[in-house]
């Protein structure tokens, strides 16, 4: 039987290290969580939410999937958003993409990947609506990276279009939706400046009253 003993060893060391700095850390956390942030990121192993922004357990509520997508019919993602906004009352939702995202790259290729094609198709649709801008770039890497940025912007809009976020705004709950992108090459985050904080900042078509 394989038991991954190395992972249990490093877990004990990790817990000990935290307890050394704050003996009541886990005890206090076990009573409640009150994170200020919901992180919607890519599943990519190189983009771990808490580490990137230097946050401890208890500080970030996290949802990750391939290419950090927020799809209107994805009950998993929508449930996370609803819980974060309505129960935890997070103040910030951060969509964080990353340059060189494999999911985004796959959308620009024609390789059949199986079940995942259905997921990636959402990014293909996005590519088609920005095709001229993306195709004007010569370099393949630049095309992928531009689509990575556009994908974040799109997912920020998708979050703002949910009834969950609009209900919060309609009831004067403080809530900002941010779009960031991370560079795996240097570990640095960039703000894409699409922070949205109220109903009048989103398209009229999507406003719900
Ligand atoms: Co990715």
Characterize this entry briefly.
By secondary structure, the protein is of the alpha/beta class. The chain has helices at 5-21, 25-31, 49-52, 75-87, 102-107, 116-129, 131-135, 140-160, 163-170; strands at 37-42, 60-65, 92-98, 176-182, 189-191.
Which molecules are bound besides the chains?
cobalt (II) ion
Strand content: 5-15%
Average pLDDT = 97
- The Rg value, from CA coordinates, equals 19 Å
Principal-axes geometry comes out as globular
Strand runs, count: 5
Enumerate the strands of the largest sheet in spatial order, edge to edge or round the barrel.
2-1-3-4-5
Distance between the termini: 57 Å
Low-confidence stretches: none
Give the helix/strand class: alpha/beta
Taken in chain order, the helices and strands follow as HHEHEHEHHHHHEE
Number of helices: 9
Helicity level, as a percent range? 40-55%
Largest sheet: 5 strands, mixed
How would you describe this structure in keywords?
alpha/beta, globular, 209 residues, single chain
Description:
With about 210 residues, the chain is α/β, with parallel strands linked by helices. The chain has 9 helices and 5 strands; from the N terminus they run ααβαβαβαααααββ. The chain has helices at about 5-20, 25-30, 50, 75-85, 100-105, 115-130, 130-135, 140-160, 165-170; strands at about 35-40, 60-65, 90-100, 175-180, 190. A 5-stranded mixed beta sheet has the order 2-1-3-4-5. Helix 3 (about 50) links the parallel strand 1 and strand 2. The mean pLDDT is about 95. The chain binds cobalt (II) ion. Cobalt (II) ion (CO) binds near residues 44 and 67.
